[in-house]
Design brief:
Layout: H1 3-14, H2 28-39, H3 44-48, E1 50-51, E2 57-58, H4 64-67, E3 97-98, E4 101-102, H5 107-119, E5 125-127, H6 131-134, H7 155-162, E6 172-177, H8 181-193, E7 202-207, H9 209-216, H10 223-240, E8 243-250, H11 252-255, H12 261-281, H13 286-292, E9 293-299, H14 303-323, E10 335-339, H15 351-366, E11 370-372, H16 385-399, H17 415-437, H18 441-447, H19 449-466, H20 493-508, H21 513-525, H22 532-542, H23 547-554, H24 574-590, E12 595-600, H25 604-619, E13 624-626, H26 634-644, E14 648-652, H27 658-672, E15 677-681, H28 689-695, E16 699-701, H29 707-718
Parallel strand pairs: 3-11, 4-5, 5-6, 6-7, 7-8, 8-9, 9-10, 10-11, 12-13, 12-14, 14-15, 15-16
Antiparallel strand pairs: 1-2
Length: 720
Amino acid sequence: MSDKMASNAANSELLAPVSFDEFEKPTYEKWKAEVEKALKGGDFHKKMFTKTYEGITLQPIYTPALHQEKIPKGVYPGAGQFLRGTKASGYIKDSWGVSQYVDESLPKDANHASLYEIVKGSTIHNIRLDEATRHDQDVQVGAAVGVGGTSLSTVEDCAQLLERFNFKENPLYIEAGASSAILLGMISATVKATKKQTSDLKGLVGADPIGVWVKDGALHMSLDTAFDEMAHSVIWASEQAPQLKTVLISGDAYANGGANDVQEVAYALATAACYVRELAQRNVDIHTIANSMMFTFSLGANFFMEIAKLRALRVIWARIMEAFGADESDRAVHVHGRTSAFTKTVYDPYVNLLRNTTQAFSGVVGGLDSLEVSPFDQPIRKSDDFSRRIARNIQVMLQTEFELRQPVDPVGGSWYVETLAAELCEKIWAEFQAIEAKGGIVAALKEGYPQAQVKAVLAERFKNLAYRKDVAVGNNMYANMTEELLDSKPENQDTLRQKRTAQIEAYLSGADPDAVVKAQAALEASTTEPGALIGLIELGALQKLTMRQIRKALDAGDISSETIEAITPHRWTEQFEALRMRTEEYKQRTKDNVKVFLANMGPIPQHKPRADFSTGFFEVAAFEVIKNDGHETTADAAKAARESGADVVVICSTDATYPELVPPLAKELKETMPNVTVILAGAPPKDLEPTYREAGVDDFISVRANCYEILHTLQDKKGM
């Protein structure tokens, strides 16, 4: 130690202990009094409290004195109801799984992309299947090949997809659709053909028949058949691949339909409870059921709400499984999270990177088991190397640079998060009980209850965006006028279909017709022996039956499910995107646009705030905004407006000058430009609004205006 350091150390020992007694201890009441002063007469409750879509009111400050009863006592990670996580060591020993999906259309391409993901930091092979495959259809008769993911029809396709996968090191994550039985049979055949063991398989090859039912409104099989096949899959996996989960409970259909977090979790839990009962009726024990299940949830925009959602989920699932008689170790929930598709935007898509980051952050802090960060261009096109790399690196950074693998449960004891989790628990449990009281999720969906609840929240979200109470950067606010849309890079469906059809026909040309007929007959006869169905499918697949042929044989004599109202997937900005695209298409077609002239009155300081507001308001729809440095007289402003050829004139000044400026200017504009729409920037006092309207003002724009409706009306008037 240097002499200077030694001297400093000696002097520090002589310093008197620091006391904070001179500072008055703050109280909530004193803090509130200071806030009310700062609000200058504004309503404390209106300004400082926030109502969420979940019906929870967020308070401006959370203190131990006010929220002590919400803080759990003596609760530890990996124990009890797993509020603080299902693992005692959190992510310190085993990190969350990095599960970046690939959606290449062809099996070989998907294989190469997934192996590359593993090399670059992913730990899970997350394969998205196309619509045809998830409905057990071949490319000749199914939906457009490759739409949404990878096309599979045969064992050869599976072999190409799974080539060089290290099942011991890297789990699978595959959402199979309403049934995973056929895919499991093909995967089993593929694994055995490569001299590997099905016992090495882990992760998920999962079926979610109710989730598909909600999304599509119907199933190609009855629900009873779907549950029968689910039971076969669960029993087969428990014996042949005990580390592999085969039951998926996804909240995506609700989240993408606009649901709030209470609805998403409650309806998913009700679905899980239904699966438990159906499997138990088919003689599957609760331990096997518990180990077969995985939940998938979207991670939305409300950072702390998403953390609280995952905490509440664990508590309620433990409560449900306890009621079903599960041991404590079987009450832990396994959760896969994915960044929200609902909140991604087509315009200003690079902002999706920021949305991804906060959503992924909340999922990790919330304690999920695996995470999927969707590429920023998800709503526009299939991902490419660049978009996948950026998405993957968000997770890698959270693990390394952010060091989120420790500490264990970083939000444990937070007055805000724990209070929020407790309130969410109460609301989720109440909604879950409401579903159970209707006879369960199947009965509730037939009645249309969840659909109506989700639809109401979606309408509220759209309304808040329309009024810009909610802000979507680059869409309903801060639009980028120089932006060019990303190239959607559409695949040539005809070429792709021809290629896949040729591959399948070449493969089938080597099939033994007698063996095919025999295999189909065995599948049609089916079996009631638990788990045996997967073996029959495996044998059929080895005889070169396609997915469609196997499904047709299994469905012999079966009927389709009852039709229900589907929950249509949406994105929160889709209405504003359609608004802007309508303008862009009109501009391209006619070389014209809605021209908005800013009638700026007086010097720049007088009109600039409202001129800037108006510019941002109309640029949301990509209208042409004609700007200027201001006009001294109303006559000058009216003349300039006429010469501009504007469709819309927006008067911009201050409230104090409007009574003198607006009546003569609006009147002259209407007299000399009879087809013009006159808009006043700013919300008028109630006593002056009739005067302004009588003078010729058609509408008013302010922070309380319905931006979407006003812009849409102007487009209609223009003939777009």
